[in-house]
Specification:
Elements: H1 7-11, E1 16-17, E2 24-27, H2 30-50, E3 58-65, H3 69-82, E4 91-102, E5 105-114, E6 124-128, E7 131-132, H4 136-145, E8 154-162, E9 174-179, E10 184-187, H5 192-205, H6 210-220, H7 224-238
Parallel strand pairs: 2-10, 3-4, 3-6, 6-8, 7-8, 8-9
Antiparallel strand pairs: 1-2, 4-5
Helix pairs in contact: 2-3, 5-7, 6-7
Length: 239
């Protein structure tokens, strides 16, 4: 039996199979995300201790919006209040990049939707993501931060999940909690309603009726309160 309360399950999770849908779906619980970010924070402190007083030390952290805002805010809580006293304080900022229209619909090229909010010139910068899929968004942000315009020295990538290992990551330092198959759509807590509203129409187009769509959402792990509050919105957009 799968124990979803075990952190080991979330390290290499298996998504839920939905009839006639090429994607599998992994519904990440609030507790799981908190525990993953707690693990990332502990590994970050280990990184800082190894690089204390060197050019690799991190004093700036950039959250890629929208996906990294929730794990980034959770990470900021740990790093601000639990860091050993000998480690440097870390300033958090944001950089808005869009890479997906919806589940399984990547844009051809990432788009900047919000400028960088902090000065990173001359720094090694932590890039916070929620997921590294093809790696193009992370690489795009890395290139922007390390360009002459922003002037960062280098980057460290921090994310709960990775789906692939792009060639450009070779030699790049990163802290990542777990791995997930490429055919699995990871539903992070910040995008539960978005995924519902964008996926239900796809199911309807393939022949699913209202009861079947609700059955699929419950199979994925959606709680009744989200279905009760927002399914009708998704259904109206589907029909």
């Amino acid at each position: 039996m799968v124990d979803m309360n075990s952190l080991d399950f979330w390290r290499n999770p298996t998504g839920v199979v939905i009839p006639n849908d090429p994607l599998k779906f992994l519904y990440v619980t609030d507790d799981a995300e908190h525990r993953m970010v707690s693990w990332l924070a502990a590994r970050f402190f280990e990184y800082q201790q190894r690089h204390l007083g060197t050019e690799r030390e991190i004093s700036k952290m950039v959250m890629i919006t929208m996906g990294a805002l929730l794990p980034g805010v959770l990470l900021q809580d740990y790093i601000t209040h639990c860091a050993p006293p000998d480690l440097p304080k870390v300033e958090f900022g944001t950089f808005g990049v869009r890479c997906y229209l919806g589940p399984g619909q990547p844009l051809e090229h990432p788009e900047v939707v919000q400028p960088l909010s902090i000065d990173v010139r001359g720094q090694t910068v932590g890039i916070v993501e929620d997921l590294i899929d093809l790696g193009e968004t992370t690489r795009f942000v890395h290139d922007c931060l390390c360009s002459p315009y922003c002037g960062a020295r280098s980057t460290l990538i921090i994310a709960p999940y990775r789906k692939s290992s792009p060639a450009w990551l070779e030699g790049q330092e990163f802290i990542i909690f777990g791995n997930c198959p490429k055919d699995t759509w990871i539903i992070m807590p910040r995008e539960r309603v978005e995924t519902m509203v964008k996926r239900v129409p796809t199911w309807v187009q393939s022949g699913a009726d209202k009861d079947e769509c609700i059955r699929r959402l419950r199979l994925i792990g959606y709680p009744d309160y989200l279905i009760d509050d927002w399914f009708e919105t998704a259904w109206e957009r589907a029909v």
